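Figure caption, in words: inputs first, then the predicted bound structure.
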Amino acid sequence: MTDNDKTEILKVLIADDEPASRFGMKRALQKQGYLILEAADGREAVRICREQRPEIALLDLNMPKLAGMKALEKIVAADNPPLVIVVTAYGSEKVAVDAMKNGAYDYVAKPYEVDELRMAVARAAETVMLRREAEKLRSEVRQGVGFGRMVGQSAAIRQVFSAIEKVAAADVAVLITGESGTGKELAAREIHARSRRSAGPLIVVNSAAMPETLVESELFGCEKGAFTGAEEQRQGKFELADGGTLFLDEIGDMSAGTQAKILRILEEQTFERLGGGASIRVNVRLISATNRDIRKLIETERFREDLYFRLKVVEIVLPPLRERPEDIPLLAEHFLGVMVRKHGRGPRAITPDAVKALVAQPWPGNIRQLANAIENCVVMASGDEVRLEDLPEDIVKPGAADASAIAVRHDLPFREAKQEFVRSFERTYLLRKLEENDGNISRTAEALGMQRQNLQQKLRDLGTR
Ligand SMILES: Nc1ncnc2c1ncn2[C@@H]1O[C@H](COP(=O)(O)OP(=O)(O)OP(=O)(O)O)[C@@H](O)[C@H]1O
Ligand SMILES: [Mg+2]
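Bound structure (magnesium ion present):
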């Protein structure tokens, strides 16, 4: 909430037929900094709500002209109605319950303690503010806070946006790295869309899924009869991408043979179709991506350094979601809108409690995992809002399902997959303990039976400090 919102003056309507009663309420509330409006009967209350749009209305249910309950119905049926706190006679709880069913926000029984009245109004004021904040967030999302289709406002993601902007204009080879689900493909699409090549094609090649025997026909195409099964001439991906961008995804999983073939075409700039004569020259911009630690792959000689330098004229690193938690509310709202449109139904908002729980998650699967969690809520939630209890189990009760929240990296060899899993576990576990101890490292270390320095080093190694 901005300071601006905090200092905003809320209008409170007091609707009661007894002047003394109005006076009492007014006195109780005026000092709290509200702007007080008054109505002496139900009809006037409805009119003032329509014309002056108070945020909160205190409505006595025993009033002449238009009875309180009828006035309530009219008030809450209007566009953007105030939160109505009904004032009932002591002992008439049933009436109060009926009023709540009819859309009242809260009730206070007469005679009331001044503090009780103030508390009820303060609670309503808090709700007004929270709703405004949520509305502001939604309108920011509608206006597209971020960069093209990429949502985000954090310093870390803004650096990515500005890098994308620069390389888009430059027509150089770009390597995009980052954990799974951080938005590498989306970033590649954004680069293409902002480049001079945007009118040309963007062709995606999944290097990992490509069997080595088919690399050449896939990438370079083939002439009719080049091999059994080649019944007609086919263009390869490089040719299809002519004048546009070729996106080589998952390059960290490319076989040695494929690496050699791709390097050759990058060096020679020309190629021939399989079984065909004339050499073909194409004008293609290369963007590649991997979620593997490419430097380690080079060190262990599983990725060619010469190819790496060709692909990485510029490298863009996408930060994991847990390193930019301030983007989570925005992304959650964004995906809520996307998923409600996709399914044609679903909740309109996420309660502040639920947003807080989302922000506290480590999100090992990053933005993709967040999108899936929100989709789950849209499909499963029954109310108007996503509440804390509507969040997927592993988010509400992280302790019970932490292990399943940690992604098993089936794409890695055993040792690395195990290392990654352990790291994720350490991160999830330590961050939670740290949070339980209000971020105090000494206290956390003590609670865990660890040396303070060890914990600090561990957090640094995990990239969380
Ligand atoms: N900044 C963002 N704003 C909105 N949506 C995003 C953002 N980043 C990613 N997404 C969405 O999250 C999902 C995952 O993104 P993407 O496929 O680009 O990730 P990736 O890094 O390529 O993952 P992997 O390594 O698993 O291939 C997609 O649905 C994408 O549209
Ligand atoms: Mg991808």
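Residues 184-185, 249 surround magnesium ion (ligand 2) (CB under 6 Å).
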